[in-house]
Amino acid sequence: xxxxxxxxxxxxxxxxxxxxxxxxxxxxxxxxxxxxxxxxxxxxxxxxxxxxxxxxxxxxxxxxxxxxxxxxxxxxxxxxxxxxxxxxxxxxxxxxxxxxxxxxxxxxxxxxxxxxxxxxxxxxxxxxxxxxxxxxxxxxxxxxxxxxxxxxxxxxxxxxx
Length: 161
Ligand code: COA
Hints:
Elements: E1 3-8, H1 15-25, E2 30-36, H2 47-57, E3 64-69, H3 73-79, E4 84-89, H4 92-108, E5 113-118, H5 128-136, H6 150-160
Parallel strand pairs: 1-2, 1-4, 2-3, 4-5
């Protein structure tokens, strides 16, 4: 069974993430969407909330599983028997960071490959931060975040203000 891990902060999941998840699920037997418990970022949603939002968005993709991790990605991937880590590339500016991370991960565990997927053209400009900013100022988030979670993001941002 070929298992892939799609790691990230997902604060919150965007249409760009969902596009990568759907395409990965069509290639691998199982895709584990792994939410990083990252103390250096100041997330809007807790890890549990982010996992719940993700589960709602992938409920119709049977070979997707949502989980969380902390520590090194390579340790987590080994523990899950994953062969591949998937990362989405939106623009050239993503490349340098991703390149460094992929090489470091390769050094930590040469048996696990990093696979890059070019983001869908419609999602090139999306990031979780810009989506939150648009929500904060009452802008239209249609096509940026999955419909299932739009109200949750709006509610959480209203509560935050
Ligand atoms: N569509 C839309 N947005 C996307 C996207 C896509 N396809 N791909 C990435 N993004 C955006 C995210 O929304 C996020 O936006 P934000 O900064 O506005 O919140 C940004 O790109 C960063 O993406 P993310 O994928 O969440 O990366 P990250 O840098 O937060 O985390 C990990 C990357 C989890 C893979 C990495 O930090 C990690 O492995 N950490 C574990 C520790 C470790 O092993 N370190 C050693 C590695 S060298």
